[in-house]
Request: fold
Amino acid sequence: MEVSDDQRICDVEDVPGAGTFLFTYRDGFDTGEALLVRFGGGAPSSDAEAGGTALGDEDTGIGCWKNYCQHWTDVRLDKGSGARVRDGELWCNKHAATFRLDDGVCTHGPCEGAVLDEVEVTVHDGGVYLTDDRYEFDSTGPDGDRDLSTGSPGGRIDFTGS
Ligand code: FES
Reply:
């Protein structure tokens, strides 16, 4: 697959084994956050290095999911310092839903059976590239346009105090 420098998110080595790598993408005039995860212990294979491999390939060990829970979609999984990852699963700290790193399926919690929203990335020549036709890479880290007063992109008003 052809990739260009402006699609490059980070080096493969930047994606932690027990955490997440947060980045911001552009969707037309909007922006959103996604996170990279490493699964299966995988460093990229030589094939992936040579030709590039799309999301979910066991050889790359890199997956990419939009940064929100499937229970309450205004709750971010990575609040800027890395989401909790343990035993091959990504945790939502709000109500402890767990999502498999490799396919995004919720295995436990209030949204069991739901699947995280996928963003396509490609591993190529030691780098991770955003190759989802819907989006353009913006920057690493959290979305600068996010409303920090609510702590979430959607700004849900919560009357429960939780
Ligand atoms: S908001 Fe994530 S488990 Fe409830």
Summary: The chain has a mean pLDDT of 84. The first helix runs from residue 46 to 51. Residues 5-86+117-140 form one domain.
